[in-house]
Amino acid sequence: MNPPRVTLVLPVFNERAVLPELWRRLAAVFAARGDCRWSAVFVDDGSSDGSADWLRTLGAADPRVRVVELSRNFGHQPALTAGLHAATGCDAVVTLDADLQDPPELIPEMIDAWRAGAGVVLAVRRSRREHGLRRLGFDSFHRVFASLTNLPVTANTGTFGLMDAQALVAFNALPERHRFFPGLRAWVGFRCAEVFYDRNDRFAGTPGQTLRRLVRYALDGIFSFSHIPLRIVTYMGLLVAGGGFAIGLFFVFRRLLGQEIAFTGFTTLVTLMMLIGGVQLVAIGVLGEYLGRVYEEVKRRPLYVLKEDARRP
Ligand code: UDP
Ligand code: MG
């Protein structure tokens, strides 16, 4: 039997300082493992630090390397998607970050799990390096996400993982623009295996994923996999309307019992107005989140544009 072909997909945005070390470690991992043919798709996501030049030179010297260049910075998910589209034709793809936070040394374990019959292998973080606000955000996101959707998304998984050819075809067939990778991967299904690792600090540089982008990514995850926020709005409306009804009844009965309805009122009125106004604005906001996403989807713009030929992907 031919040795299986494994393709690595790595989105790269301003990782010039990491790339030589990344390449050294990737090559070492596969040199120690002679039983598969490997190649790598590097997606340059509009880097401005010379990453693309370095990769192009590497690609010219090494036939295992393919460089896909995007026409500008599109973001982590579109870059990853571009890489997965380019990776078709192999027996398995491994998706990993280029900043060495996902240790390449875990890849053999993933390949073993795949060879043992899993269609999808998830790398689960035993520990995280993020602290403070970022850490709190990650932890509470996974909790909220689990309670709002019934997708079996394993907590503490990111993009690091392996998909076999079948899972890749199914994944690449997903047309949506707002992409939440762990959710989509869980949606695709197939037999899952897990391998565990400790997340490293990034080797060099700063995260290109700003906190704002991460928040947007988290909202994408929730709004594209759950309708529960809409239902919560309905319940909120019912609650406020019920409250209003109860207050109305209370005053009607007081009146009927001949009691005076004299109260100073200003504070109550202002509080009620703010409460109702707030609930309405939140409701519109939630609707807007869905509407905005629907709008993005119906425009059907491509998710990314390739530099070399500006072809529609
Ligand atoms: N990345 C990308 N485009 C971006 C931001 C990041 O392709 O606009 C890449 C980056 O080079 C890295 C991976 O996506 O390989 C994860 O990004 P980062 O380390 O900045 O995110 P974090 O680790 O904070 O999630
Ligand atoms: Mg990182």
What does this structure look like?
By secondary structure, this protein is an alpha/beta fold. It has two domains: 5-208 and 301-309, Alpha-Beta Complex (Spore Coat Polysaccharide Biosynthesis Protein SpsA, Chain A), CATH 3.90.550; 228-299. It has ten helices and seven strands. It has helices at residues 19-31, 51-61, 76-86, 107-115, 132-148, 165-172, 181-188, 211-225, 228-256, 266-299; strands spanning 5-12, 37-44, 65-69, 92-95, 120-127, 157-164, 192-198. It has a seven-stranded mixed sheet with strand order 3-2-1-4-6-5-7, with helices on both faces. α1 links the parallel β1 (5-12) and β2 (37-44). α5 packs parallel to α8 (211-225) and α9 packs antiparallel against α10 (266-299). Bound molecules: uridine-5'-diphosphate and magnesium ion.
Key terms for this structure?
313 residues; 2 domains; elongated; Spore Coat Polysaccharide Biosynthesis Protein SpsA, Chain A; alpha/beta; seven-stranded mixed β-sheet; binds magnesium ion
Total number of strands? 7
CATH homologous superfamily caption of the largest domain:
Spore Coat Polysaccharide Biosynthesis Protein SpsA, Chain A
Biggest beta-sheet profile? 7 strands, mixed
Q: Which bin fits the share of residues in helices?
A: 40-55%
Return the string of H and E elements.
Answer: EHEHEHEHEHEHHEHHH
The structural domain count equals: 2
Bound molecules: uridine-5'-diphosphate, magnesium ion
- Strand percentage lies at 15-25%
Query: For the residues shown, what is the average pLDDT?
Result: 85
Shape: elongated
- Strand arrangement in the largest pleated sheet: 3-2-1-4-6-5-7
- N- and C-termini, Cα separation: 33 Å
What is the name of the CATH architecture of the largest domain?
Alpha-Beta Complex
Gyration radius over CA: 25 Å
Enter the CATH topology name of the largest domain.
Spore Coat Polysaccharide Biosynthesis Protein SpsA, Chain A
User: CATH class of the largest domain, anyone?
Assistant: Alpha Beta
Structural class by helix and strand composition: alpha/beta
